[in-house]
Design goal:
By secondary structure, this protein is α/β, with parallel strands linked by helices. The protein is built from seven helices and 18 strands. An eight-stranded mixed sheet has the order 2-1-9-10-11-12-14-13, with helices on one face. A six-stranded mixed sheet has the order 8-7-4-3-15-16. A hairpin with a 2-residue loop joins strand 9 and strand 10.
């Protein structure tokens, strides 16, 4: 039975627009997205890695799980290979599943590359139903490939995403739309999502936003990014910022990415979850903010060797706070599968080796490790 026919209800999606993004007062629109409302039956991990959550209702709220996965592009024939079938149950576990969609979704004759690039990603519209059936609820679009085929292809991308019932964040038809955070009602919780791209930024030195369809975290646009984050915080119980940036193929986070993590931790977000390096990086915490430096690849055709080491990063949300655990997977050639025991151990070790202040135990649950500084 298709996943969405099993859903217990449709939950409302509130899109909040920060006033600084345009106009004197916030605006927004109400959309619909299907999201599971099943109760998390497993015990939420209890450790001091959890961030405090202030209850907004008198009765205890049911715990929920939020899932986040890395770079996904369904081009190069990947749509014919059932890329998610091997981990369908893992993607179905979270009450909300989010991934980074790093590709235009458009017909072959739509759009043209606005700039010369070594790698251009365009996936067919038939790719999106695969995401829906796999259990994806939200796609993050602020990244360096969303505009690979220009505004025309992005316009079709947005239309196709909306048509299949996925929610989206991080891109839009203009700057106002791009910088709208997404606030979802998931169970008894309001969950705020922000998607921002820090790469590329070489074009932004003039301070003029000539690529207004994406929410950028480039230095000239940090006020817009801050307004987006603050709007999400004001509207949500739990806020997660996803940032696309860093150096590709490097296991340690770039200094400028750490600065952004610290910036939004200072604003009070519950987690910062980054991507773009195409490898899994470490985890840490900044005061009460959980940090994932890089989610690595997910369904990504070029994944090989260490770049095929992947994971679903899970945030368990309860009245006790927000905790982190990691479910390792493998994705050679973009086709995802459960790892062998040896591969699982290798993936957890890869993350632990470059983590500071936190370590994953054998079950993938983040535990406080104040004496661990990591190899970075």
């Amino acid at each position: 039975m298709p996943r969405r026919s099993r859903l217990l209800s449709l939950l409302s999606v509130l899109v909040v627009l920060a006033a600084a993004c345009g106009g004197d007062s916030p605006g927004g629109q109400v959309e619909s997205v299907a999201a599971r409302v099943s109760v998390v039956s497993s015990t939420t991990a209890t450790s001091s890695t959890s961030t405090a959550v202030s209850p907004t209702t008198s009765a205890p709220r049911r715990p929920i799980t939020l899932g986040f996965a890395g770079d996904t592009t369904l081009d190069r024939g990947l749509t014919d290979l059932d890329p998610f079938g091997g981990i369908a149950d893992l993607m179905q576990e979270p009450d909300l599943m989010v991934l980074n969609l790093e590709t235009a979704i458009a017909d072959p004759d739509v759009g043209r590359p606005p700039v010369a690039k070594s790698f251009l990603f365009k996936s067919p519209p038939s790719a999106l139903p695969l995401l829906v059936e796999a259990g994806v609820d939200v796609v993050a679009l602020a990244n360096n490939h969303t505009l690979d085929f220009g505004a025309e292809a992005l316009a079709q991308t947005l239309e196709e995403i909306d048509a299949v019932g996925l929610a989206r964040v991080g891109a839009g038809r203009d700057q106002n739309a791009a910088y709208q955070p997404l606030v979802l009602e998931v169970g008894d919780w309001q969950i705020g999502l922000v998607s921002l791209s820090r790469v590329p930024c070489d074009w932004s030195a003039s301070g003029e936003n000539v690529r207004p369809q994406v929410a950028w975290a480039c230095p000239p646009f940090l006020d817009l990014a801050d307004a987006m984050v603050n709007a999400a915080i004001a509207a949500a119980d739990v806020t997660i910022v996803m940032v696309h940036g860093g150096e590709e193929g490097v296991l340690c986070p770039s200094d400028f990415m750490v600065e952004l993590e610290e910036r939004w931790a200072g604003l009070g977000v519950d987690a910062v979850i980054d991507g773009h390096p195409h490898v899994l990086q470490g985890i840490t915490s900044i005061d009460d903010t959980l940090v994932v430096h890089s989610t690595g690849n997910f369904a990504f055709p070029a994944a090989r060797g260490i770049t095929a080491n992947s994971a679903i990063f899970l945030l368990d949300v309860s009245e006790d706070g927000v905790t982190l655990r990691v479910e390792p997977v493998r994705g050679p050639g973009g086709v995802l599968a459960k790892p062998t025991d040896a591969q699982r151990t290798e993936i957890l070790a890869q993350i632990n080796d470059v983590s500071a202040g936190l370590q994953l135990d054998g079950d993938g649950v983040a535990q406080v490790a104040p004496d661990v500084t990591g190899s970075c």
